[in-house]
Amino acid sequence: MNASDMPSEQHAVFEIQRAAYDAAPFAEWSERHGRLERLRALIADNESAIEGAIDADFGGRPRIETQIAEIFPSLSEIRSAIKHGRRWMKPRSAGVSKWFLPARAHVVPRPLGVVGIIVPWNYPLFLAVSPLVASIAAGNRAMVKMSEFTPAFSDLFQRLIAAKFRSSEIAVITGGPEVAALFSAMPFDHLLFTGSTSVGRKVMGAASHNLTPVTLELGGKSPTVIAPGYQIDQAVQRVLAGKLLNAGQTCIAPDYVLVPRPQVQTFVESAKRQARAMYPAGLDDSDYCSIVNTRHYRRLTGYVEQARAAGATIVPLFNGADRNDGKHRLAPALLV
In three state form, how does the secondary structure of the chain look? Predict the structure, then answer.
C-alpha cells in the first residue's frame, strides 16, 4: 500500500513520524532515556485511572490483577531498559572468517525507523507497553493500534500518550477491524502483532506486500503434564494460579492437563477445594475476573455445551452458580 492510499489520520501520523526519523535517524541515549522516563511517569501517575478503565472494559476485573499482571511488569520493563539501554546501543565486535583476515567486523545497533504495534485485548496495558519500551530503547518512532474490545482503556491510553509525547514520537490509533487491516498494510519498518493465529496470518499477509518484517506472538494450546508420583496438590495450585488469573484469558494459561489415570479423581477433588478457597464467594467474588465481552463469553459457554453433548463430565470448581449471562461471568470447570 502506498502512503497516499492510507486513511487520512494514519497517513498523516505516519508521514510525521517518517519525516522526524529521516531528519534525526539516530536518537542519542539522552533522548531515548527521556522518552522511557515519560512513559514510566505516565503509568505511575495514572495507576488508578488505568485500573478503572480496564475494569470497565471487562465488566469486572480486579484491580489487584491489573497491578500484578500489567502495571508492575510494565514498570519493570521500563526500569530494565533504562538500566541497560545505554549498553545495548554500544557497537560490539564480531568474528571474521580466516578468509577475510586481516579485516575486522563490528555489529552497530541502529534504529529501524517507524514501528507498528498491534495490541490485543486481554492485557491491553502490558502488551502495549512491553513492545513500546523495546521500540523506544532502540531509538524508533512508534504507532500503536489498540484493541476495539477495550474501548475505555484505549481511549485513556490514547489521551495519556498524546499528553506526554509528540505525534512524531509515539501515536495511538483506535478503531475496529477495518482500521486494523489498514494499519497492518502500512509500510512500517517493523510490525509487531500479539493475538490469534488466524488474525496473525492476515497481518503477515498484509505486511508482506511492503516486505515489512513482522514479529508475531500468537495463541496456542498450553498442556500441563503431571508425572506419576508428583504431588497433586502442588500441581493443582500451580495450574489454578495460571488458569484463574484474568479468568483464564491469558495466551499461556493451561488449557488441558494430562494426569495419570489413577490420580484423576484426586486431581478433581483438589482443584475443587483449592478453587473454592481462592474465591470463597464464587462468581460473586470481587477478586474474580469477568469474560471481556458477550462474544467471547458465548464462545466459551459454547465449548462447554459442545463437550457436554459429546459425553464429557462437567465439574464446576466454584460453589453456587456456574455462570451469569447478563454480566458474562463464567466459573471455571473441569471437563473430564
Answer: CCHHHCCHHHHHHHHHHHHHHHHCCCCCHHHHHHHHHHHHHHHHCCHHHHHHHHHHHHCCCCHHHHHHHHHHHHHHHHHHHHHHHHHHCCCEEECCCHHHCCCCEEECCCCCCEEEEECCCCCCCHHHHHHHHHHHHCCCEEEEECCCCCHHHHHHHHHHHHHHCCCCCEEEECCCHHHHHHHHCCCCCEEEEEECHHHHHHHHHHHHCCCCCEEEEECCCCEEECCCCCCHHHHHHHHHHHHHHHHHCCCCCCCEEECCHHHHHHHHHHHHHHHHHHCCCHHHCCCCCCCCCHHHHHHHHHHHHHHHHCCCCEEECCCCCCEECCCCEECCEEEC
Cβ atoms 152, 176 nearer than 8 A: no
Q: What is the pLDDT of residue 9?
A: 83
Residues 6+ apart with CB under 8 A from 87: none
Cα–Cα distance for residue pair 191/7, rounded to 1 Å: 18
Residue given cell 494430562 in the structure block: 258
> pLDDT grade, residue 4 (50/70/90)?
very low
Integer Cα distance of 326 and 8 in angstroms: 39
Task: Inform me whether the pLDDT recorded for 325 exceeds 60.
Answer: yes
Residues 6+ positions from 230 with CB-CB distance below 8 Å:
none
Q: What is the mean pLDDT of residues 231-255?
A: 95
pLDDT of residue 234: 97
All domains of the chain in start order, with CATH = 3-218 (3.40.605.10), 223-335 (3.40.309.10)
User: Among all residues, which ones are annotated catalytic?
Assistant: 217, 251
Cβ neighbours for 118, distance < 8 A, ≥ 6 positions apart:
145, 180, 183, 184, 191, 192, 193, 194, 195, 203
